[in-house]
Amino acid sequence: MKRFAEDYLERWKNRKGRKPLVLRGARQTGKTYLVEKFAGKYFKNYLKVDFEFDLAVKSIFSGRDPEKITEELSLYYGVDIIENHTLLFFDEIQACPEAIATLRYFYEKKPGLHVIAAGSLLDFALRDFEYSMPVGRIEFIYIYPMSFNEFLLSIHPKLYEFIKKWTFEVHISELIHRKLSECLRYFFFTGGMPEAVAAWIENNNLVDVQRIQNSILTTMQNDFAKYGSRKQQEHLQKVMHHIPRNIGTKIKYVNIDRDIRSGVLKEACHLLAMSRVISLVYKSNGNGSPLDAEINPNIFKSIFLDIGLVNRLCGLKLTDMKQLITIYEGGLAEQFIGQELLNYGFDFESPGLYYWTREEKNSNAEIDYLISHQSTLVPVEVKAGKTGSLKSLPIFLYEKKLKHGLRFNLGLPSKSNVQVNIRLKNSEDCLEYTLISLPLYLSGQIDRILDVELVK
Prior knowledge:
By secondary structure, the protein is of the alpha/beta class. The protein has 17 helices and 13 strands.
């Protein structure tokens, strides 16, 4: 399976002034597999140090001299460590904070050695880091579950090449639209966790996919023991099971458990976000870029790590891939787009998710997501079907004086100039805007599509 982050690793390998690279992401999103595939393709020698597995090796990092560290690692593992020929990989580096501290010295004293580190709970280690952080001496890349584009490339390369080049000048027939929608439905069920996708590609067996998803969820919950007390673990469990059933809904702690203090549940939400099990979608005033400059940190929605895991936590037992999901379908569409937006932008940036809402008597409005495309604000609405009203979109565009809105649904792509009357307190005004409507399966192409459409 091709991960697009492989291309980033290749550019990193050949970059002048290259720094040690740290992969950040939730457990089982494919970080180790990505590095091992990269090592096999480009390096003569490869040495993996797993700090959770080989506890004895931690003592090597009590010093700070990278020359001595690599000499001892070479002797211990029996692998030659040669600059420009060896990839040195520190896996689960959060289990050895001393190793994190040494990364700066690899950059300063052994710049020819390719060093990569990864950790699934790395944000917790960095939060409580007791050593001098190697600021400016390392770089990060963020790894998420497979995107739909990566999934489609794995199961149907020709369809991927088709949507990769698609523009509004290219007609999509009903036949191809149905086929792409079918592939999207597969992705809704399997999700993007690499092991689950691999099982689906290998034997198209839903039972195997669900077994793997259950195993991943169990591993996540076992990790809760590393976050804090037994009581905190119970709170994390409650939040973890609440989120998938309430995608797209503002978090209200009373709806999670009215008997637990809101501050305790808020902390649980932020702990799950730090572990990247969930992503928080913050309310922004939406007056322009950067969107995070106008967020309210106390008002947020949430999406889960992966859409396939959402289905498992909701208890859906899938026996027929053609089944339609009914009660959760709207939430799944919003989960899917949020998950795709996390792959929108640069690999080296940790993207934020934002939405807009106005809660006024007889005048409520909400935009599912806000994105910034080259400093242009674009509101994004998500619909689970082929149709659906857009009451909030014109209100937002009018208030913010914007001319483009983006809608995702299950219909064929379209682009239209819309005129709508906006009701004000004592009068009406007319709004003209361009509505870009895309099928959900084109979500991974929005960067390229908006490059063209926003300049027209």
